[in-house]
C-alpha cells in the first residue's frame, strides 16, 4: 500500500510539472538591437581584416605618407580624377601598375577600377544580399549570373566566407555614408 501511494504521489508530481505552462522565450527589443549591432560590428571587422579599404578607398598624402581618405570611404576609384596614362617606357609583360591611390590597376587583364561599395545607387545601393554573395563567392560583376568576371579577380579565398560573414559585411556596408561615384567601366587589354 505504501509503495502504491509513493507511486501515485510521484505520478501526480510528474503530471503537475508537465502540465505547467512553460514560459515562452521572447527577445526584447534591446536584445534584437544588440544582435543587430553585433552583426554590424562583425561586418566592420571583416571589412577591416579583409583589407577592403586598401583598394576601394582613395588615399590622400600626409607627412607620414598615403592614408585612407575617410571622406571618400569605400567609394572606389574617384571618377572625377583622371587615371594617369601608362608611361610609354614601360614594356608590356607580366606586370601590374597601380594608380597612386591604389584604386585602379593596369595589368594583363586590362584596366580595372575599384568599385563603389557605398550604399549609393552608383555603388551597391540597389544590390540584394544574393548579388553581393555572388560577387564575392563567384567573382561575378554586380553579382549577376550572366555578367563578366570582376576584374581583376577578387581573391579566391573570399569564396570561403561564411553566409554569416557575407551578410554581416553587406549589412555593415549599407550603413556607411553613401557616396555618388560612377566608377569607370573596365577596359580589356586591347582598348
TrEMBL record:
The keyword Magnesium does not apply. Pfam families: Cytochrom_C (PF00034). SUPFAM superfamilies: Cytochrome c. InterPro entries: Cyt_c-like_dom (IPR009056), Cyt_c-like_dom_sf (IPR036909), Cytochrome_c-type_DH (IPR051459). Residues 38-177 form the Cytochrome c domain. Signal peptide: none annotated. Keywords: Heme, Iron, Metal-binding. This is Diheme cytochrome c-553. It comes from Euzebyella marina. The lineage of its organism: Bacteria, Pseudomonadati, Bacteroidota, Flavobacteriia, Flavobacteriales.
